[in-house]
Write a structure and sequence with these properties.
single chain; globular; 2 domains; five-stranded mixed sheet; 259 residues
Amino acid sequence: MGGSGRNEEILDKIVLLANLTDQDVEKLHVGGPRTVIDYQVAWAKTYLKEYGLIENTGRAIWNLTDRGLNDKLPSNEVINSHFRNKRKNKSKIKSHYNTHDNENNLDTDNWIEELNKKLFSISPDGFERLCQRIFREKGFSKVNVTGRSGDGGIDGEGILKISLISFKVLFQCKRYKGSVGSSEIRNFKGAIPNDVDKGIFLTTGHFTSSAKLEASKPGTKHIELIDGVEICNLLKELSLGVKIEELVTIDEDWFEQFN
């Protein structure tokens, strides 16, 4: 892959190399929105980063380090042992910790699941308004929630202007548990008029492989897919409903050079 890749590119490559079936790929981790394979790959990247073989230089972008390019890959046992020992030698101090707010302080490995549960607890109308807010924060204008019935699943519309060019967009936002299949994407496509440039489908769930193929099928209007994990990451990026507290880490190993 040229030494770097985005999360989705890396995941697609792993699926291909491991010859995984659609059933393997679509199995959900603790009910979603993340899949088991996505969850496992995320931990693998964490371990490889700790060992100095890869690094992330931007949101969802990973690169091989010089060590990752040139060194022989160590065994899983060696990487796991290194990871555990490094964690043991670090003291973590959480700034501005408030015991009253403890129930809202989420561990790094479960915040997406917890946030997704919160998204599913709000009303359908509330979820549409939340998606409307996300579009506005990301630069869309004239974002309206239509709330119409019998419209093929269209929940709203907006305009995205990039430099001198404007794009008219229709969106559908559904709170789903589990997976969204190709039929939902096909129905949404069929409801989009010819004068609309793009369709966006947002869900708290996960898109099946067939849904992804349907969304990008040649000769038809391309549909952008935003699943539950990406919605959670967007809320984190935009600081909407998510508070990121400072975490100060003391690296005991670093101070050894002064002894």
